[in-house]
Amino acid sequence: MILDRLAREVEALIFASDASLSIEKLCEYTGSGKDSVHQALDRLNKAFLDQQHALIIIEVAGGYRLATDKDFGAIVSQLFEGRKPGKLSRAALETLAVIAYSQPCTRMAIESIRGVNCDSAIRTLLERDMIRISGRMETPGRPLLYSTTMVFLEYFGLTDLDHLPRSSEIAELLCMSSSEMEEKDLFGAADGE
Question: What is the value of pTM for the model shown?
Fold first, then answer.
């Protein structure tokens, strides 16, 4: 009975929150331990599945949030037809990739990797809350250091930075032809990878 109540509390918190909630926050708000909160999350997802709900609780950006089951993506996407997607420019994506893999890093480090000025891309990423100023480097001039934010993790559906593709994986994909990638995806899916 106590776990049922906790599951309902966790569900209410996740539903009401506009951002993902960490286990620590869920424990703080409910006054429960991590194991109990994990059990409540499992119970909620099992109930959603058993009762054939269109909702699930997913782990993203170091926390949990309510989401639509991917099986209903096509129908839900109709709600967003005609809206201008919040896409990032190629320059912003390149800048974001450099920051994600090199953080914390300075504007000068980003520009040395990209080979072009990145002031506009940094400004856009700061405005969209994809990156933040995380401090200053202890060198002459004390340049600003940039790091990614939880919004970055949510945008890309990552639990944490450890889920970014490794540079060796990226290099391998860039060397493969498109037919090799399709074949790898087919066999990877068949093997359960």
Answer: 0.55
